Amino acid sequence: MENDLNDVRDSDSHVVVVGGGQAAAAVVRTLRAEGHRGGIAMLSAEGFGPYERPPLSKGILLGTKAPADTVLLSADRLGELEVAVHAGVAAQRIDRSNRLVYLDNGESIGYDKLVIATGGRPRQLELAGNATDEIAYLRTIDDALALRERMKRAARVLVLGGGWIGLETACCARELGLEVTLVEACTRLCERTVPPVVSDILLSRHRANGIDVRLATQIHSLELVAGGALRAVVGTEELEFDLVVAGVGMVANDELAACAGLPCANGVLCDAVGRTVDPDIFVCGDVAAFTHPAGPARPARLESWDNAERQGAACAFALLGKEASYPGLPWFWSEQGDTNLQILGFPDASRTPVTRLNGNQSIFFWLKEGFIDAAICVDAPAEMLVIKRLVQKRVRVDLAQLCDPSLSLKKLLQTMPATDVAASG
Q: Domain containing 17 — which CATH number?
């Protein structure tokens, strides 16, 4: 749905949302749910309305989901919410003095309040050789659809990066019957986000699945050779592949904010609910750098579905001048083949976790003063639901019972007293 920019420019309490992803959708839904009656414009540079990104490295690659399955707000729903979506339009500059956003089509749009939800983009690799442009990246629906088509024509795939995107992509390639080599420069998988014991579980499972995982290894060059193959120097070996995919991190799309004079440091600096130094500008989602009340005492970005959803909603409350707070501990999940991994809170690799093992299920808890303040579940999604409740209700747990897989976590929820401390998860 597109409206003429001039139709909304002079609306009372007009909100402009720059971005068209998960966080942007959460903002506009919450604004209307909380009674905002002014105009809302959404600038979506991608050319689509809001959609979910997690299926891109799972169902979309496998062909079990279609782009329509990822839609967050349909055209009809956006119409009901009276959101003017400007698809394929990118913001180029913010004039804070006059509260204007200049667009790449030569027009401008005014705002009373502005939300920056511009997300990020894949970090690009620069390699020796003539085939850097042949490397595939995964961030958008178009990326996923193009990669799926390339996988159909490939037999040998090189995946660069042992983080979430790399591992999920590698698993999809294996499920499609491809020969997969995965290269990670660090000494273990997902080194920045999980402790060594979880990295070891993932490594064992992926190698058992037939993925050739090479740790502490780098790619040095990539050449396009006769016949269309890609020749890579990996470590000390020369190997040939039909397809190379990189998942080596994300760069925050914070240039728009930085050029407007807003403080940035690997993201737009803000508080937990998206307030910036400009009282009329807010930020949320992957591009927001903030100090989480339960996390490290420094600004950081949280790149997850959960953060985009919850911070987007909290940002809308703050924008409306209502009481706003970041609701609880962050939660993240990854589906890697048959493995379901979920993370709650900020697991501290420097602290030894409490371990609960039950067959293929592995659960790791981090405790503080008798309370759970972080957890990782491997193939235990139902248990994570209970753990969230234990955290939310501030239940002081018994260490021996927590470790005993014969005792149901639900039993702990029912029998152990909750404290009167405000909920933290």
A: 3.50.50.60
